[in-house]
Design a protein that fits this description.
Length: 229
């Protein structure tokens, strides 16, 4: 089950019937007592993430920050002292993976460079901190428009890229002869369903040699990609 900040317990078993079918209840009585034991059905379970009622209703915590995976033995008895056990029953709660935070970014200005088509702007670790890298690894990073929800449009979807795996490096091309003005993009990363966005402004200067020496060159003016123009 997922982590939830709510301290309310979650029902994981509705009663002993989820585990056992009592026979001869008219003569031997139905189940009247249930307890939790550790896996193997030896000693009593004492971790505290799970609880059981006398009739086998099992409830579980859902707000354990680190998460847990508890394997237990369900032990129930009838009124005549007969005991039956169901071993290796597992309850898992995912950790709280709202662990990404974003630091401050410095806006970038780049000169035109025909050979620099994969210039690194930032790697994930330059931008974000993940306090649970093992339990809650980053699963994706994308670049979006300044609204942090819409995909980049041409030409920025080819001029600005991000690697498809760790370290999720944000790269740009400096080979746009006409340059591009202050473009606000959103560096967005996700782990276990939690997404954190960080905006950054990128500008690449035009190739002034072409602007001066080639009267036929058209110098384009690109707006914020969120405008689509």
């Amino acid at each position: 089950m997922p982590y939830a900040a709510n301290s309310a317990l979650v029902t994981k078993a509705a009663g002993f019937a989820d585990f056992f079918t009592p026979l001869y209840t008219a003569t031997c009585g139905t189940i009247t007592a249930c307890t939790l034991k550790v896996s193997g059905c030896g000693s009593a379970y004492s971790t505290g993430n799970l609880a059981i009622s006398s009739v086998g209703v099992v409830t579980a915590k859902q707000n354990v920050d680190a998460g847990y995976e508890d394997t237990v033995c369900i032990s129930c008895s009838n009124s005549h002292g007969s005991t039956v056990e169901h071993d290796s029953w597992k309850v898992t709660q995912a950790p709280n993976c709202a662990t990404l935070t974003a630091g401050s970014l410095t806006d970038k200005v780049y000169d035109y460079d025909a050979g620099a088509t994969t210039t690194t702007v930032y790697a994930f670790t330059d931008v974000f901190t993940n306090s649970k890298t093992s339990a809650c690894p980053v699963t994706s990073c994308t670049l979006k428009q300044s609204d942090c929800s819409t995909a980049l449009v041409a030409p920025f979807d080819s001029l600005m890229t991000i690697e498809g795996s760790t370290p999720w490096t944000f790269k740009i091309s400096q080979a746009q002869a006409s340059g591009y003005p202050n473009v606000v993009v959103c560096y967005s990363c996700t782990n276990s369903g939690h997404t954190v966005d960080k905006q950054i402004t990128i500008r690449q200067k035009i190739n002034c040699a072409i602007a001066l020496n080639n009267a036929t060159t058209t110098i384009k003016s690109y707006a914020d990609p969120a405008s689509g123009s």
